[in-house]
């Protein structure tokens, strides 16, 4: 179904062969009123129906004239609005948006209303015109029909206008709104009759002859205003001003041209109906007044109903919409009754007749609802931007009363009553607008990373057909959002990465806009390949899993730079604000394995993934001493390692709290480091679609699930020791001052209660001295030491250091070193945590011996204090 355009039974056009005089006998009078009614219906069935159902026609929205009563010039008094009782099948009152229609058993007829969806691809008539001087009647100015109509309709409507206010004193904008108003009224009345007749509804549900005749008279009102009033010389001068473009008056002019084009097909029918010699309109007692009267209100209430005069003056939207223009799409207008309410219980005494129009600029995705009266009293706009007034999210729904409450400024609400059919339509529009806005705009836990128009886009839903065009669409829009969630721990709150969201839309200059929004979860890899179109345009292919179903995107860009940018953003490889530039390291191997300790305490586990030769890039946060006492690596939202291989890329984020990162160095291979990670949800992975089989894709998915549920180990082998030191500093925040292999690591343990020492000896030991600010630690990793696998302790400038020599070995003795005993035989016994040291419970002398004196001297230089000489033969 098309947007807000009434459905009807399509019939072939028939040539107009009969005149009204042939169908209505001259003896039409009050006595043969029933004959007259039948003749009107027969005449309209043969002629007007063809006009409203032609393929070139713009079908109007369904509307029942009984929904509101217009005031006549004879009475000049307000009539009470009709209060229809809603059907019993409606659910209990809802004060929030909820898809209640699924449970509603009443099914209206297809011609009764349009199921509105601004993003369905349906044809719509093209009613457009450029901003130029109003000259809609010029083509038929000399025709006899126009001359006859001007004379006839002037005699009919002029007295009703002058009875209220002389026509010369009425402003241009009021005439424009009146022309559009009555065109909508007449169009809706004829459409309502057409649908009732075409669907063969019961007699009591069909519109009466008065309603049909009133529709023709309403169209005549619009015709007379457009051809008699708006063609005056003073109005021609006013409408020729080029500065009107982009203003409400300019938008009204465009809409009035749509009215002129629509009314042109009814000129002969109006002539025959109203100027054919029979006073049929008088016989049926139709309303010939042109103005709708509204209750008086205070200046305060008027300011609220005006919706902010400055915002209205700058708005490009018309108060009442009739058709499409060069810059705007109209999705239909409906007549409603509104009442101004306040939180204190204050309300205007009477309801007001208004038109609710749905429009969208061709350069925007934002659907706007405009509620406007025939005068300037009510002018409310509903959009997505809260800074411009009421929003779709500000609507509360009263289902049992078939009404909605629009939240206005200063604690006021605008209650809008609708018919049952229109209520469903408006709810769908609001629901769609809220959904579209939520997809198009970043929420409070998202960040917009990429927003650009692309050359072609194509979307495929492998599970079920999609509303998105199956063929490539030109000039689409792509937006990429980074998602996160707030993690609250004892150290405070921080943001954690939770994937990406991609939004792809067809261009807004199309009447029907389709869009898709999919989340790139961290729980499954994203298939990604760089491609090219037939014309050489650079592109990227993305395939992801959402709810267990595959989704595919083909995105083609105008240049290579845009493609490279979105590809790098998906890998999280572009430094953001406050982040350092990328550090790149060539690595020989990158392995993710399961963390599992054997009986000896050595960490072992099954290997999940090995990327072999790769390139590691590290992005970290810039130094900020005020941010955290732990340094820039702990509690960091920025620290991440991107591993890129020929078939896959892994982004390993190190967003951790104190004590959650532990490292281990190999004693045998000085270029290898092991990193112990707790279960993490922010590891992401992309794979080359053309290089990965379904089996490998399944294993990659299993890997991501295991990393999220269990501890894991990253084993990285670098090309050089220098690269390892730089990488180690990047992820831990500690700079490596010394890294060497000790031949002996001695601890002189004091026995309790007796002055005897027991010496623990470890032979091959890898020793590092690391520093962060003024903090310096000694880190040791043992090889086949039966007590521990590793140890680290702090040293200060006030500690005592002595050089010692022993049988061709040169070393340093730490007198009364303070340390904590490592916990043996655990999963992390061979790992050390640098950012949090356990409380030192031991006080023993420790000696570290090297095979070369120069290595000992280099080790001594890295210590924080002066190194003295120990007495001869005084060893550890």
From TrEMBL:
<dbReference type="InterPro" id="IPR056033">
    <property type="entry name" value="DUF7614"/>
</dbReference>
<dbReference type="Pfam" id="PF24586">
    <property type="entry name" value="DUF7611"/>
</dbReference>
<dbReference type="InterPro" id="IPR056030">
    <property type="entry name" value="DUF7611"/>
</dbReference>
<feature type="domain" description="DUF7613">
    <location>
        <begin position="578"/>
        <end position="732"/>
    </location>
</feature>
<protein>
    <submittedName>
        <fullName>Uncharacterized protein</fullName>
    </submittedName>
</protein>
<feature type="domain" description="DUF7612">
    <location>
        <begin position="443"/>
        <end position="572"/>
    </location>
</feature>
<dbReference type="InterPro" id="IPR056031">
    <property type="entry name" value="DUF7612"/>
</dbReference>
<dbReference type="Pfam" id="PF24588">
    <property type="entry name" value="DUF7613"/>
</dbReference>
<dbReference type="Pfam" id="PF24587">
    <property type="entry name" value="DUF7612"/>
</dbReference>
<feature type="domain" description="DUF7611">
    <location>
        <begin position="315"/>
        <end position="432"/>
    </location>
</feature>
<feature type="domain" description="DUF7614">
    <location>
        <begin position="738"/>
        <end position="864"/>
    </location>
</feature>
<dbReference type="InterPro" id="IPR056032">
    <property type="entry name" value="DUF7613"/>
</dbReference>
<dbReference type="Pfam" id="PF24589">
    <property type="entry name" value="DUF7614"/>
</dbReference>
